[in-house]
Amino acid sequence: MQFQMSCHINADQARTFALFTDFKNAAANIRGIKHIEVITDGPVGVGTRFRETRTMFGKDAVETMEVTAMDPPRSYSVGCGSCGARFDTTFHFTPDNDGTRVDVNMNAVPTSLFAKIMSPVMGLMMAGTMRKCFENDLADLKAVAEGRPVARTA
Known about the structure:
alpha+beta; Alpha-D-Glucose-1,6-Bisphosphate, Chain A, domain 4; seven-stranded antiparallel β-sheet
């Protein structure tokens, strides 16, 4: 399963990159994240690990992610292993007129036998949900970068 998406953010490249890599404050900036814990010390870079809690399909889902590549302020990648698959996502930041174009590339590869067998079915079921999750996250980060509040639900 893989997908790509893009959005334009009315903020400069350095500000946008800094916001996207501010994992400590991600739960305040992204509605879909219930809790986040950075589990490595020091500045964000390759090897930074964080544990993220979201509600997926009505249950809390906790994933430990790791920064696998970092090229400030142009790009970074995060990855994790979950549910018998390897998930890797790369974010590219390109100056674009008066702001920044953000390109997101997500790729999931089944690693367990069960996941390989189930990937055609699970890919269809999960792709839409994951894409919507990324779209919502991008919309929230865009709002924060542009100085608008993130709409919270009661």
